[in-house]
UniProtKB/TrEMBL annotation:
GO annotation, cellular component aspect: endoplasmic reticulum membrane
Alphabetical keyword list: Endoplasmic reticulum, Lipid metabolism, Membrane, NADP, Oxidoreductase, Sphingolipid metabolism, Transmembrane, Transmembrane helix
Organism: Micractinium conductrix
Top-level enzyme category: oxidoreductase
Domain Ketoreductase as annotated: residue spans: 16-203
GO terms for MF: 3-dehydrosphinganine reductase activity
Principal subcellular localization: endoplasmic reticulum
CDD domains (alphabetical): KDSR-like_SDR_c
Xref: InterPro entries: KDSR-like, KR_dom, NAD(P)-bd_dom_sf, SDR_fam
Cell compartments where the protein resides: Endoplasmic reticulum
Protein name: 3-dehydrosphinganine reductase
Transmembrane parts of this sequence: 153-173, 274-296
Length: 314
């Protein structure tokens, strides 16, 4: 079904199968809870079995009571970096719950740190999990979707997929890579019946965020604070994302209005974030807005470096 402005709506109904990687906690679990409450068949995939067991209890509690049969809810242990084992997990999920109609690639992590203080192993591991783990997930689900000419793939990038600042040299490039992958997939899958969406979650209050804060450098915190970043509840972020998925949006919305405007500046050849006339009106203004944000971030970094013993360049 086509919605407003030609979007193909994608609202998984009760009984349809939604699979979420990184779905045992945080944003992934909140997304899973929303779909379980809708009566969808839900599979969450993650590495930690204790986390999966706890997540399954929450999904059962969220699922609607009554009905002819309880919805199929699954929690499967698999590492997205192991393509063979991940494929077997997806096959097991489909054997129990039927074809995957919606795949949400949410698995990922961040280890903030200054570039000169992080070794190549951090960059390699982050790219392997955040980018190649997503590639493995899509490759496991996409052939079936293409055969059925039905389905949607959601790649969860980050606000750092459209901007970058101090402390995220090992993380932001992996999310930029996901944005590039999403753009290519969207174009490649035209006319196949399979849709693609990309999400840009803002700072979200999750267990992963709390771990991230433990290693976040002071410089990173200074720039983040200067930009006025807000920490959003995971449930609120998940609700906004699900609304965008239901509408068939390519660029999924965020509860952070400023971030939505930045996404709108960087749509490239992909569909525009807002209605085209809105982009035309914003066109002369947005370069000024983004330049102000860039100036604020750079000024915060300069001040921090000068105050902590790093002399300004000549």
């Amino acid at each position: 079904m086509r919605g407003l402005f030609g979007r193909r709506r994608c609202a998984p109904a009760a009984g349809e199968h939604v699979l979420i990687t990184g779905g045992s906690k945080g944003l992934g679990l909140e997304l899973a809870r929303l779909y379980a409450a809708r009566g969808c068949k839900v599979t969450v995939v993650a590495r930690s079995q204790p986390d999966l067991d706890a997540a399954l209890d929450q999904l059962r509690a969220a699922a609607p009571a009554g009905g002819a049969a309880p919805p199929v809810l699954q929690a499967l242990s698999a590492d997205t970096c192991d393509a063979a084992k991940l494929k077997r997990a997806f096959e097991q999920a489909e054997a129990q719950a039927g074809p995957i109609e919606l795949l949400i690639c949410n698995a990922g992590f961040s280890v903030p740190g200054l570039f000169i203080e992080q070794g190549p192993d951090v960059f390699e591991r982050t790219m392997r999990v955040n980018y190649l783990g997503t590639v493995n997930s899509v490759q496991a689900a996409l052939p079936g979707m293409l055969a059925r000419r039905s389905g949607r793939v959601v790649l969860v990038a980050s606000m750092l997929g459209v901007l970058g600042f101090a402390g995220y040299c090992s993380y932001a490039p992996t999310k930029w890579a996901l944005r590039g992958l999403a753009d290519c997939l969207r174009n490649e899958l035209q006319g196949t019946g399979v849709g693609v969406s990309v999400a840009y979650p803002p700072d979200t209050d999750t267990p992963g965020y709390q771990v991230e804060m433990e290693s976040k450098p002071a410089l990173c915190k200074a720039v983040n604070s200067a930009l006025g970043s807000e920490l959003f509840p995971a449930a609120k972020v998940a609700g906004v994302l699900v609304g965008g998925i239901d509408a068939g949006a390519y660029h999924l919305p965020s509860p952070d209005v400023g971030q939505n405007l930045l996404v709108a500046l960087m749509t490239g050849l992909s569909p525009k974030r807002f209605w085209l006339p809105v982009h035309v009106v914003l066109g002369p203004v947005m370069p000024l807005v983004s330049s102000v944000f860039a100036w604020v971030a750079d000024r915060a970094a300069r001040r921090h470096n000068q105050e902590h013993g790093m002399p300004p360049s000549k």
